[in-house]
Structure formats: structure tokens, C-alpha cells
Amino acid sequence: MKWKETLVDLIAYCYVALFVYAAISKLLDYEKFVKSINLQPFDDRWTPLLVWGLPTIELAAAGLLMFSATRVYGFLLSLVLMVSFTIYIKLVLSNYYGSVPCACGGIIRKMDWQEHLWFNLYFVFIGLAGLILMWSNRKSSRETKDLINAVG
User: Fold this and answer.
1) Which partner for 25 in 73, 76, 93, 106 could form a disulfide, CB atoms 3.0-4.6 Å apart?
2) Model-level pTM?
């Protein structure tokens, strides 16, 4: 169905915008990003991996989401990222780590932890919806092809 494809495209491009914005804002304000990563409750030995790895993975997810052939992998990677970030935020909110500053970039940094949790949950929800719509669209597409082949 065309509306499902359009909705999947819209969801994918929302993720692309989010991840490209987040990655670029981290890299453009690299020194501030490094400082905020060092304030996280991780050993500082992880800093080089995190400051280069997070933007790289975000950009990779955005790239995978741009093309229909790789979109399923993009949604899966995006969901892994968003669920991981969401679990981390939930741990921060439960005071598991004590007081922790946000290491996000750009305007997302302006959110408090509760707003950030809702923001992430929204993206987890639409990511799951995108995957479900893709799979249901593929299934109905296969069924249509099977019906055409059976009739033809």
C-alpha cells in the first residue's frame, strides 16, 4: 500500500534528520562533547571510542535509512541506539549514577532528562512502527505477487 511506504519513508527521514543533526552537532562542538563524555559515569579510557563511535554509528544508521534496500538494517540499528540511550536515561532518572550531565549535542542538550526520556520513547515507538509497516508491506507485496503468478 502506498500510504505505508510513504509513512515508512517519513519515519526513516525523521530518524535521518535526528541522527545527522546529533552527529554533526557533536562533531562541531567536539571539545564540549569530549568534556561531557568525560563527565559520564564511564571510565575515561572509553572516551575516544565514544566520541568517535557515537557520531559514526549515528551517521551509519542515517545512511542505511536513506535507501530502501538497507532500510531494515537502518531501523534495527536505530532502534538499538535509541533503546540503549533510553535505558541509560532511565538509569540516570533513577539516580543509579548520581548527577550526570547530558552528553548530547545541539538543541537536544537543552532538554532535561525527563523530556529526553519522552523524546527517546517517541523515536523508539515510531522506529518500531516503521519496522512493522515495512514487514507488513513486504508480506502483502509477496502475497500479491504470488496471487498474480497463480492467476497468470
Assistant:
1) 106
2) 0.85
